[in-house]
Amino acid sequence: MNAPTSRPIRLGTRASALATTQSGHVADLIRERLGCEVELVEVATEGDVSSAPLATMGGTGVFVSALRDALLEGRVDVAVHSLKDLPTAPADGIALAAIPPREDPRDVVVARDGLTLGELPVGSRLGTGSPRRVSQLAALGLGLELEGIRGNVDTRIRKVREGHYDAVVLARAGLARLGRLEEVTEVLDPLQMLPAPGQGALAIECRSDDELVTALAQLDDPATRAAVTAERAVLSTLEAGCSAPLGALADVVEGDDGDELWLRAVALSEDGGLSVRMSASGPVDDAAGLGQRLASEMLAEGAADLMTAPHFEDHQ
Ligand SMILES: NCc1[nH]cc(CCC(=O)O)c1CC(=O)O
C-alpha cells in the first residue's frame, strides 16, 4: 500500500529496554506493512523517573499518560504501550488503532539454581510487587516469603543472580521480547497463575482524528483483540465494585459452530485465602459482552467482598 503520509511517522517510546524493544518491533511492522518512514522519539514518564512504589503513583497508568500527552500535543504520532498497563477507560482524542498478535501471555519464574516454584524451600524469598501475583502465589501454600520489588526486567533478574531474592515472577512476553527466555526456570500454568488482562499484547495508539487510524488498522490481529477485549471487560466491570487482585485470560478456541472465545478469570483476597474463579465462553464478536457477563457473575458470587472478607479479622 502507498504511504499514507509523506512525513516520517514519529513513534513515541519510553526509554526502558523493554519499551524501546517493543517500540522498535512496532516501528518495523509499520515500515514493512505500511511502507512509511518511522522515527523513534523518547518520552520520559513519571513511572520511569520515580522509584516510588507504583501503587502510590496512581498505578501503572503513570507509564501511559506521558505518551498520551505527547500524542495529543502533536509531539509524536504513534504511541506503543504494553496493553496490560493501559487503563480500561477510553482516552479522549485517542484511538486504540491496532493490537498486533499477542506473545505467550503466561507468567514465568526466574529462580536461583534452575529451581521451579515447587522446588523452592519453605521460607524462600520471592520478589514481586504485583497484588495479582502475590495473592495467587500465596494461594498455592508454598510457604514463600513474598516481598515487594521494583525495577526493570534486567534489575529483577540481577537481584536473583546477586542473591537478594531466591526467585522472581515476570511476564514471559517481556523476557521473550528482550531475548532473555533462557533465564526462565518455570513457565506457570494459567491453572495456578492467571495473567493480567491484556498481558503479552501491545497497544498501538494514535490521535483519533488522524488518517493513521485507518492505516494502522492493518496491523490489528482480530483474535488477539477479541481475547483482550473480553479480559479488559472483566477488569472494567469488576473495577466498579471490587478492587481485589484479578487475573483473566481468554483464548479463541474451536467450538461446535466455529470459533468461539473461552474466558477464565479469578478475583482473590490480598492474602489469596479467598477467591472467586469462573469461566465462560461466547461468540468472538461479542467479546466485551462475554467479559461483562462473567464479571457480573463473579460479583454475584461475592468478588466485591473479597477485600473486606471477615477472615482477615478471624485468622490474624
Ligand atoms: N508491569 C510492567 C510490565 N508491563 C508489561 C510487562 C511485560 C510485557 C507484557 O506483559 O506485555 C511488564 C513486566 C512484567 O510484568 O514482568
Keywords, separated by commas or semicolons:
single chain, 316 residues, alpha/beta, D-Maltodextrin-Binding Protein, domain 2, Double Stranded RNA Binding Domain, 3 domains, five-stranded mixed beta sheet, 10 helices, 13 strands, 32% helix, globular, binds the ligand NCc1[nH]cc(CCC(=O)O)c1CC(=O)O, hydroxymethylbilane synthase activity, EC 2.5.1.61, transferase
How are the secondary structure elements laid out?
Layout lengths: L8 E5 L3 H18 L3 E5 L3 H4 L12 H11 L5 E5 L11 E5 L8 E5 L13 E3 L3 H9 L5 E3 L5 H9 L5 E5 H7 L7 E2 L14 E6 L4 H5 L5 H20 L4 E10 L2 E11 L6 E9 L3 H14 L10 H4 L2
Parallel strand pairs: 1-2, 1-3, 6-7, 6-8
Antiparallel strand pairs: 3-10, 4-10, 5-8, 5-9, 11-12, 12-13
The structure holds ligand PBG.
Notes on the structure:
It is built from ten helices and 13 strands. With 316 residues, it is of the alpha/beta class. The chain folds into three domains: 112 residues, Periplasmic binding protein-like II (D-Maltodextrin-Binding Protein, domain 2), CATH 3.40.190.10; 81 residues, 3-Layer(aba) Sandwich (D-Maltodextrin-Binding Protein, domain 2); 81 residues, Double Stranded RNA Binding Domain. The strands form three sheets. A five-stranded mixed β-sheet has the order 2-1-3-10-4, with helices on both faces. Helix 8 runs parallel beside helix 9. The radius of gyration is 20 Å and the shape is globular. The chain starts with 8 loop residues before the first strand and ends with a helix. The site of ligand PBG has 9 residues, from strand 8 and helix 6.
